[in-house]
Amino acid sequence: MNLFASDHKAVARRYLWGGLGFLLLGGLLALIIRWQWAYPGQPVPGLAWAMPESHGAMTPPAYTAVFTMHGLIMIFFAVTPLLFGALGHFVLPLSIGARGLAFPRLSVLGFWLYALGGALVLGSFAVRLGPASAGWTSYPPLSTSVFTPSLGQTLVTVAVLCAAASSFLYGLNFVVTVVRCRAPGMTWGRLTLTVWGLFFASVLNVLFVPVLAAATALLLMDRLLGTQFFIAGAAAVGGGGDPVVYQHLFWLFGHPEVYILILPAWGMVGDFVAFFSRKPAHGYRLTAGAMGVVTALSGLVYAHHLFTSGMSPVLGRTFMVLTLLISLPAEVMYLNWLMTLWRGSVRLTSPMLAALGTMVVFGLGGITGLSLGAVATDVPLHGTLWVVGHFHLTMGAASFLAVFAGLYFWFPKMFGRALHEGLAKAHVVSSAVLFLGVFGGQLAAGYAGQLRRLYDPYQYTYLKHLLPLNQWTSACAFLLGAAQVLFIVNLVWTLSRGRVVGANPWKVGTLEWTCTPSPPPAWNYDPVPVVLRGPHALSQPEVLERLGRDWMGQAESFPEESETEPGQAEGVGGMSTSGGAA
Amino acid sequence: MRPSMSMRVPSSEEEGSQRDAETRWLGTVLGLAAWTMFFVSLSFAVGWYRMREPWPPLPISTVLLALPGLPLVFSSAMLHRAARVQPVSPREARRLLRLLGMTLASGAVFVAMQAAWTHLAFWNHHFRIPDDGVPASAFYGLTALHALHVLVVLAGVFFSTVRLKRSAEVGDSLRRLSLGGYFVTAMWLLLFVAVYLP
């Protein structure tokens, strides 16, 4: 295996293994947090070697390090790289009929920056005083050397900078690839919704990742060079900075990051709902437009994360209105998905189940988010587990299920073998249900007043009665962890002995399934296909009648006039297919 | 329409190469436009502090702080001219090398002047980061971050010069590097307004 191969499919596979590895690590850290909340202070099974002085029990510093690293790893090193690095790299050029990405060497550089960041994260576990422990947001002054002097915090901050640089590079690469490298005939109106999602998310990546880079650069200078951008109060020598500036910069990136994660997921849901309902996507243009509106608004809503930071009430109200407004385009998308499902010939394949799971958990996450977008309800809920439950449903569960929807769908194209459907369905359904158990439990605990980030919530009398709820929630989390074994077994078994599949096992018409074998050759297409219609040409009466199947390839033309009934070919050009407008 | 005999029809290889060059150009434009957010964010942070309390004058005079702008603008202008030279003859190649040399030299003067001012402020005016809080942090920190960007562009020009000396085609790289030249010049102006002006 050439570790420096610049073929987008090879880069995607590298991101896939890296992302899955970090997903496993981040997941194990989550289980440790849940253990602490279910059995506070009791030794974590199997961790005595890591914390011999406490016989494997979590100490407060170890606990803060664990929840910090869980968040950081999941967002920067697992879910984002899986969505963009693995699925995006693999799918995007294939879906638009390109031979590769616009800048292949840039994508190699991006991967190795990500790998360097990952190595620094892993290395941080082995240094004195342990890894980062200032929360995944690295809020100063906690993240300055005054409060977290460990080398681990510095290493992780550099790692985040590496991950950010990697995101910037692939974001830029994706935008330019979509603009410049589409196959002939692949108009904007013929792109798959997945590509639209990846495109808009990449626009957000290139716009807002530099903001994170700026915040992180200033933080690193505070840690390493003694500058005082974010050190204030008694910790500052003279004058002093303001930690709230970091919060503004961080959330100006951090809130769009939610959409960076969910836009590709929405795109996939839009496509899969159409593919597996055997119907054109209802309101294709509206769905793509709604994703565009979300993209445009995403940077304008960030300050709802700062309602409790002493923000001016006028600003607070403005950001509240903008935040609540952003739910409207999301509702448009939901309605379109539901209309696509309505009276469709729905096939509950594993990607479809995962897409439906994404819809459900993101829907619940969105509804619970409304209370955080409004100032009056955000103030009492802000410091509680309600926020944790909400963002885990939107960013965690929805993105996770979308990753697996995409993986189950494109795995046959990636490796030429199909994952076992039974195991895949069991994995998806159990994961979706258990996600609702875990994060529903967090929402309930938050609503009851449990503060987030507490090492031992039960030291407060008013929270003691939440122990059974937290134990049930933790049981769901442990089962959720166990459910992932289904995927690991499926993956290992499939890669060694899985069923070899043909070019188009799902019977859909997009370019990657209809114009190239599984797995595709180095140059993807030979020759490059000429695109004739949109991506959702499903169950069209003309196609059913003339080809005897319910799908038609994006670059497929009808058989010659002489081979069909006279007079029928004329209607083909005007055939209405979703997104088929040039 | 058939092309006239005098019109040279580009080969498909040339068309592909031209298309690749246009793609790289677009990538550079988009990348630099997006990276502007980096400096805008830094300026936002400085603006926040300046709104909070009066910004003390820096210990170096504003005129002196403005001076490095001259070599930077000159360097960017030389790079702009270099990007438009077609080294089809030895004379043109020599001219291109001269322009690149001037770009590198004036860029180096800019970096040296910035280094001299920060050195002066630190040693001669006791403008120390811990004692002088955010203004000192912004002065040293943002100057250094900007200088790093200038050095990246200069490194690119240096490698292009080396490649040119080895008779490699560098026109495309120089056109994109000239965008980098405009970018660091514009960002220096932003830095000047945000940090150096009292």
Textual characterization of the structure:
The complex is a heterodimer of chains A (582) and B (198). Chain A is mostly helical and 582 residues long. Chain A is built from 16 helices and 2 strands. Chain A has helices spanning 8-38, 60-95, 104-124, 151-180, 193-224, 243-277, 284-298, 313-325, 327-341, 350-373, 375-381, 385-415, 421-447, 467-497, 511-514, 541-547, and strands at residues 417-418, 499-500. The relative contact order of chain A is 0.10. Chain B is built from 6 helices and no strands. Chain B has helices spanning 12-52, 62-66, 69-82, 90-123, 129-165, 171-196. In chain B, helix 1 (12-52) runs parallel beside helix 6. Chains A and B meet through helix 4, helix 5 and helix 6 of A and helix 1 and helix 5 of B. Chain A: This is Cbb3-type cytochrome c oxidase subunit I.
Main pleated-sheet profile of chain B: none
| CATH classification class of chain B | Mainly Alpha
Helicity of chain A, as a percent range: 55-70%
Shape of chain A: globular
Low-confidence stretches of chain A: 564-582
Question: What strand line-up does the widest sheet of chain A have?
Answer: 1-2
Main location (chain A): membrane
Biased composition (Gly residues) (chain A): 570-582
Membrane topology (chain A): Multi-pass membrane protein
Pfam family, one (chain A): COX1
